[in-house]
């Protein structure tokens, strides 16, 4: 599908009935423009989704930058990704700017601000973008790379992830190998691709072993500590509680540990827990958390390098890259009693 035509200064000038020079003065904040004319031009710039051309490599005295944009505050997961992106940027002399996306922003203005700031590419971490956002970025000629997107619009989007299905499979197989059969799963957003893949990996392992997956043993959440506390409490208060729980991420796993402690249960004697991510908090948990390692720093580095390749007009081998996960066994799992 051809990219939408990008509005030019001439387009805006023709709509306003003024010269291109006048539009340029408004863009540059010059004072020698009548207030009424300035207001008209500014409104038409927004209406046409005008985006100033980003400075090309070598045209600006400042350092090239890539923006890493989060939907929420920094946490252990996003900090690891950011570290990888920063290190990869330092290797090639590119700076990394971090921001939190404001959901109330209009897509056109959002993309225009990024382009006006001279960003070479945008890396969106666990974000939910619509086709309007993608169209706005296309008009701004700003490459996008998504990491663990919460949704995948129909348009082809470049994304970086990990082998989430294989990770969910390995986590559950580990618990099954310890003799557990009543195994529950607490995941993330119901529509998130990573949650879906981890859940299907869990189900596949259970079905292959002939273990029953009870409907109330599968829960969704937001990959937050609170989800583990609340979801863990719900599961552990059942007449027939699980003997093991696979958590969709490390933060949720720590919440489950707290819910178990509040009920006088010991980890792993009374309940085994496996997390996902292997962030900094996993080895610091009490007991240290058995988890699925996601190469988060490498994901950040690959995303940054991919964004720069797209910005340079290079072709990439695949629009979706999955990096391998692996099981890290610590002390939060034990043989079922």
Task: Give a brief rundown of this model.
42% of the residues lie in helices and 16% in strands. With 337 residues, it is α/β, with parallel strands linked by helices.
Describe it for me?
- The structure is a single chain.
- Helix content is 42%, strand content 16%.
- α10 links the parallel β8 (244-247) and β9 (272-277).
- Strands 2-1-3-4-5-11 form a 6-stranded parallel beta sheet, sandwiched between helices.
- It has helices at 9-16, 20-27, 35-47, 76-92, 107-116, 131-139, 164-177, 193-209, 225-236, 250-262, 281-284, 296-311; strands at residues 65-70, 95-100, 119-125, 144-147, 159-162, 183-186, 218-219, 244-247, 272-277, 290-293, 320-323, 326-328.
- The protein is of the alpha/beta class.
- It has 12 helices and 12 strands.
- The chain folds into 3 domains: 9-47, no CATH class; 65-162 and 297-323, Response regulator (Rossmann fold, 3-Layer(aba) Sandwich); 164-295, Response regulator (Rossmann fold).
Please render the helix and strand layout as text.
Elements: H1 9-16, H2 20-27, H3 35-47, E1 65-70, H4 76-92, E2 95-100, H5 107-116, E3 119-125, H6 131-139, E4 144-147, E5 159-162, H7 164-177, E6 183-186, H8 193-209, E7 218-219, H9 225-236, E8 244-247, H10 250-262, E9 272-277, H11 281-284, E10 290-293, H12 296-311, E11 320-323, E12 326-328
């Amino acid at each position: 599908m051809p990219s939408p035509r990008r509005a030019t200064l001439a387009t805006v000038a023709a709509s306003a009935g003024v010269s291109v020079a006048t539009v340029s003065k408004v863009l540059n904040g010059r004072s020698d423009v009548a207030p009424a004319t300035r207001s008209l031009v500014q409104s038409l710039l927004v209406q046409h989704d005008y985006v100033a051309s980003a400075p090309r490599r070598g045209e600006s005295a400042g350092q090239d930058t890539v923006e890493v944009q989060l939907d929420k505050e920094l946490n252990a997961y996003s900090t690891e990704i950011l570290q990888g992106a920063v290190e990869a940027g330092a290797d090639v002399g590119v700076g990394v700017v971090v921001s939190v996306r404001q959901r109330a922003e209009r897509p056109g203005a959002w993309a225009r601000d990024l382009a006006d700031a001279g960003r070479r590419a945008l890396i969106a971490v666990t974000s939910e973008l619509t086709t309007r956002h993608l169209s706005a970025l296309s008009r701004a000629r700003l490459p996008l790379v998504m990491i663990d997107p919460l949704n995948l619009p129909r348009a082809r989007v470049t994304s970086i992830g990990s082998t989430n299905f294989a990770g969910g499979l390995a986590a559950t197989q580990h618990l099954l190998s310890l003799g557990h059969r009543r195994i529950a799963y607490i995941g993330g957003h119901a529509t998130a691709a990573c949650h879906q893949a981890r859940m299907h990996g869990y189900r596949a392992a259970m079905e292959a072993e002939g273990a029953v997956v009870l409907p109330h043993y599968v829960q969704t959440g937001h990959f937050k500590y609170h989800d583990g506390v609340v979801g863990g409490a719900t599961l552990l208060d059942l007449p027939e509680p699980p003997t093991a729980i696979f958590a969709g991420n490390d933060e949720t796993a720590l919440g489950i540990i707290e819910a178990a402690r509040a009920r006088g249960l010991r980890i792993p004697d009374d309940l085994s827990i496996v997390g996902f991510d292997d962030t900094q908090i996993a080895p610091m948990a009490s007991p240290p958390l058995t988890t699925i390692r996601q190469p988060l720093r490498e994901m950040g580095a690959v995303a940054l390098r991919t964004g720069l390749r797209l910005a340079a007009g290079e072709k990439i081998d695949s629009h979706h890259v999955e990096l391998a996960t692996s099981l890290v066994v610590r002390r939060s799992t034990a043989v079922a009693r």
